[in-house]
Design goal:
single chain; 304 residues; alpha+beta; two-stranded antiparallel ribbon; extended
Length: 304
C-alpha cells in the first residue's frame, strides 16, 4: 500500500490539555495511535484502544469529521462525546442543559436547534417548500417528501424479517414488528382490547373514562383527541386549509375535501351488496339500506 502523507490531527482534550497525535503505519492498512490516548468517538462510531487488535484510519476524520481548519475535535465534558466543531458542541450541550434558545413568537414553543425552530414556524406560516415532482403535493419537511415519493416509485425499504412484509415508512415498520412480539401488546383492563403502542392504549382509555383533556379556548368545548380540537378551532378562525384542485373550493377538514372531489372524479366507492347501487358517501349508503329501497324492489319483482 502506498504511504500517503497523513497530517497530524489536533485534538482538544478534557481539562484543557491539548496534544497532537502522530498516526503511524505499523502494518499495511492499519494506523495505530499511542496506547495512552483512548478517547471514544461516539458520534462517529469510532474508538481507540490500547491493544493492537483495534486500529483507526485517520483519513476517516480527515474526510468525514475534520475537514474544518486545524482538524480539531471537541469533547463534551458531560458525556465524553467528541464533536467536530465548536458550534456543534454548543448545540450538543443543550441536550444536557435543557436550554432552548429559539422561541416561537406565535405559540411560545421553544427549540434547542435553529433548524427545528424554522421547520416549526412553517406550521404557522403554511409554507411548504418541498414539492413532489410527480403530483405537486407540498411538504414542510424534506424527509416527508422523501417518504411520500416512495408512493410513486413503489419503494419499500423497510422489510420485516418474520413475515417479509415491506413498508415505505420506518414508523409503520416499527409498529408492525410489535405484532410478532405478543409480550409487547398493551391490553385495556376495561374491555380487553389490545394495542401495539402504549400511547394508543392511553388514548383508547379516554373512551371509558369520558375524559376530554383538550378544550377549546374560544368556547370551552372538550375533545378526546388533539386533532379533533385543531379541526374544531377552524370553526372560530375560519381557516380552510384543504383546497380542491378542480374548482378551488376550500374545506376545514381533509375528509370533506376527499368527499367533495368525488363530484369531479365521479368516484362512488360505497355500493349496496343487494342491488349494487353506488354512492359517493357512506352515510347515503347507510340511509339507503335503512329505508330498504332495494328490498322493496326485490319483493315486488318476486310477487309479480
Amino acid at each position: 500500500m502506498n504511504n500517503r502523507n497523513i497530517p497530524n490531527v489536533h485534538f482538544i482534550l478534557p481539562k484543557d490539555h491539548e496534544r497532537e497525535v502522530n498516526f503511524t503505519h505499523d502494518s499495511p492498512g492499519q494506523n495505530h495511535v499511542p496506547s495512552d490516548f483512548l478517547p471514544v468517538f461516539h458520534s462517529r462510531g469510532l474508538s481507540f484502544a490500547n491493544d493492537k487488535k483495534h486500529s483507526f484510519d485517520p483519513t476517516y476524520i480527515e474526510e468525514k469529521g475534520a475537514n474544518h481548519k486545524g482538524g480539531k475535535l471537541y469533547p463534551c465534558n458531560v458525556c465524553g462525546r467528541y464533536i467536530k466543531s465548536k458550534t456543534s458542541l454548543i448545540r450538543h450541550q443543550r441536550i444536557h442543559t435543557g436550554e432552548r434558545p429559539f422561541s416561537c413568537s406565535e405559540c411560545g414553543r421553544c427549540f434547542t436547534q435553529k433548524c427545528d425552530f424554522i421547520q416549526h414556524q412553517r406550521v404557522h406560516t403554511g409554507e411548504k417548500p418541498f414539492s413532489c415532482s410527480e403530483c405537486g403535493k407540498c411538504f414542510r419537511r424534506k424527509w416527508n417528501l422523501v417518504e411520500h415519493y416512495r408512493i410513486h416509485t413503489g419503494e419499500k425499504p423497510f422489510s420485516c424479517l418474520e413475515c417479509k412484509k415491506s413498508f415505505t415508512q420506518k414508523s409503520d415498520f416499527i409498529q408492525h414488528q410489535s405484532i410478532h412480539a405478543a409480550d409487547n401488546w398493551f391490553s385495556c383492563p376495561e374491555c380487553g382490547k389490545c394495542f401495539t403502542r402504549k400511547s394508543n392504549l392511553v388514548k383508547h382509555q379516554l373512551v371509558h373514562t369520558g375524559e376530554k383533556p383538550f378544550s377549546c379556548s374560544e368556547c370551552g368545548k372538550g375533545f378526546m383527541k388533539k386533532s379533533n380540537l385543531v379541526e374544531h378551532q377552524r370553526i372560530h378562525s375560519g381557516e380552510k386549509p384543504f383546497s380542491c384542485s378542480y374548482c378551488g373550493k376550500s374545506f376545514t377538514q381533509k375528509s370533506n375535501l376527499v368527499t367533495h372531489q368525488r363530484i369531479h372524479t365521479g368516484e362512488k366507492p360505497y355500493s349496496c351488496s343487494k342491488c349494487g347501487k353506488c354512492y359517493t358517501q357512506k352515510a347515503n349508503l347507510i340511509e339507503h339500506q335503512r329505508v330498504g329501497t332495494c328490498e322493496k324492489q326485490f319483493s315486488s319483482l318476486s310477487e309479480s
